[in-house]
Structures are given as C-alpha cells and as structure tokens.
C-alpha cells in the first residue's frame, strides 16, 4: 500500500529559534556551509514551507555566489563584499540558517556611511552552468580600464571627470587623500599630472574619501 503523500503548507514568515530572527520570503540570509572552514553561504529566500503540524520547516533558496565560487574566479575589480545572484535554486532545512543579511544594489552600497559584517552588494546575475554574467559589461575607469571596486580609493580629474587609482598615476594613497584638485595627464595645461591638494571622493558620491572609507 502506497504511503499517503505528506501535505506541506507555505508560510508567510517563520521564527528561526536558534538565532531569534523572523524570516520572510525575499529576505537574504546566511546559511551554514558544509565545510566549516568556509564562510557562510549567502542566499535569498524564495519560499518557506512546513508540514501539517508546522514543523520540519524547509526553505527554497536562490544562491548568491561569491566571486571565487564562479567559473572565472575573483578578479581585481570585485569588491570584498560582492556577490552574484545565480540561477541556482535549492531546498534547505531552516535549521541551517545562521543569520540574516542585506544584499544591496551596487549604487546603494556605495552610498553607505559604514559597511557592516552582514552587508553585501550585487551588480551581476550569474549563470552557474555557463559562467555568463548579466549585464555582460559595465563601465570602466582609469588608465587600467577596470570596473569600479568600491573598496578602492579613486580620485577624479576635474577636466574629463574620469576616475583614477592613485597607484595607476604614481601617487601614494596618503598623498591622494590630501589633494583638493587633480588633472590627469591629458587634461593638464602643461600636459602632465597636476596635483594641488586635490579633492578626493568615491565614484558614486562627491564627499571626501575619508568619510567613505569602509569600516569593517
């Protein structure tokens, strides 16, 4: 005789008792990895369901991949808190949830006054089978023509408005932080770098760089 099919019901929310947090669909969470030496996995909750008694709670998740987990690996422009929203879905026990986190848009992340341990950002979707990204290209800056890494200090040319890494223009970071004006080689009246106590800022905002240093 066939066993009766277990009926499961969807939940709008659920309290994860061992962390004392309420989770809902759409929340981002940290999940316990199979290898304890690795950092927690980052995932977005797509669905929460329990058995008829409200027990044996499971969650359907959509995984975020860290750059080092992708086919191409981590690259210079990837931020330390960057994750990619993948097409990899899974079912996990709610008991594997270690905490809640926030995955910001790239623009929102760059405007944070301080970055906490549970703050991440995402600017790409990732195909886990092919290694393809969406979008497949983003704006590049500096002489090195690299996408923006929000962890890195950059200075803006007042002539062309492009952004440069101090090391790429042979300026020490501590010198760059004291600048008020900067003209790149192409924009300098003397056709050379002109550093005059230059104004420094992160790319997304126009405030002093020391107020945007990421506190971890």
TrEMBL record:
The BAH domain covers: 21-137
Question: What keywords are annotated for this sequence in UniProt?
Answer: Metal-binding, Zinc, Zinc-finger
What would you give as a GO molecular function for this chain, any one?
zinc ion binding
User: What segment(s) does the record annotate as region Disordered?
Assistant: 194-216
Judging by the UniProt lineage, the source's domain of life is Eukaryota
- Specify the PHD-type domain's residue ranges: 139-190
UniProt entry tagged with the keyword Transcription: no
Basic and acidic residues bias locations: 201-210
Q: Under which name does UniProt file this protein?
A: Chromatin remodeling protein SHL-like
Q: Organism, per UniProt? A: Salvia divinorum
């Amino acid at each position: 005789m066939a066993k009766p099919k277990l009926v499961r019901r969807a939940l709008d929310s659920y309290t994860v008792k061992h962390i004392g947090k309420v989770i809902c669909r759409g929340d981002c969470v940290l999940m316990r990895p199979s290898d304890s030496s690795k950092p927690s996995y980052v995932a977005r909750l797509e669905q929460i369901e329990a058995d008829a008694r409200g027990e044996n709670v499971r969650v359907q998740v959509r995984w975020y991949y860290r750059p080092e987990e992708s086919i191409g690996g981590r690259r210079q422009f990837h931020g330390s808190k960057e994750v990619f929203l993948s097409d990899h879905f899974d079912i996990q026990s709610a008991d594997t949830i270690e905490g809640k986190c926030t995955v910001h848009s790239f623009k929102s992340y760059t405007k944070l006054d301080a970055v906490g341990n549970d703050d991440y950002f995402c600017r790409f979707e990732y195909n886990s089978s092919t290694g393809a990204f969406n979008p497949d290209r983003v704006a590049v800056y500096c002489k090195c023509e690299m996408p923006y890494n929000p962890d890195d200090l950059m200075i803006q040319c007042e002539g062309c408005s492009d952004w440069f890494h101090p090391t790429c223009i042979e300026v020490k970071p501590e010198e760059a932080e004291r600048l008020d004006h900067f003209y790149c080689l192409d924009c300098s009246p003397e056709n050379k770098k002109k550093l005059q106590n230059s104004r420094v800022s992160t790319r997304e905002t126009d405030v002093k760089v020391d107020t945007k240093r990421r506190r971890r």
